Amino acid sequence: MSDEKPALFIPGIGQRGMTALHFAAYCGDGEELVRCIAAGMDPNKKDKYRGYTTLHWLADMSATAGPRLEMMRMLVQAGADINARSNDGASVLSLARSAGSQAGDDLAAELVTLGAQS
Predict the structure, then answer these.
(1) Which terminus of the chain has fewer CB atoms gathered within 10 Å of its CB, N or C?
(2) pLDDT over 90 at 13, yes or no
(3) Strand, helix or coil at 96?
(4) Sign of torsion, CA 79 46 107 13?
(5) Do 110 and 118 contact (CB within 8 A), yes or no?
(6) How distant, in Å, are the alpha carbons of 28, 35, 75, 89, 118 from that of 40?
């Protein structure tokens, strides 16, 4: 048995398939998200780390700062799939619900209103 610890993933553009749009969602950077959408970036592209879409990153990091509800609405308007699943089957709704924050609760409520599945 090896004593080596798995390498910690430090998110960044180009790291394990993370795009600028993924990173904007991860950081809660609404202005960068708008620029990426305007440039035609695909909100449904999955990263190579967990198979997260932009909405997965937005929900998973919803306990951190940023206009996440407004960002989610922009992503949905740009065609983001609210029912996308990550590689391990996690839904955007389940990530928002497990965030343990008001922003996560707000995202979850809006996702349910839009018809998201757990």
Answers:
(1) N
(2) yes
(3) helix
(4) negative
(5) no
(6) 19, 9, 12, 27, 28
% of the chain at pLDDT higher than 70? 93
- Record the tokens describing residue 62, joined without a space: 């919803």
Q: What are 25's two structure tokens?
A: 């969602």
- The C-alpha atoms of residue 114 and residue 118 are separated, in whole angstroms, by 12
Q: Three-class SS of residue 115?
A: coil
> By C-alpha distance, which of 77, 82, 78 is closest to 93?
82
Cβ count within 10 A of residue 9: 12
User: Tokens in use for 94?
Assistant: 């389940």
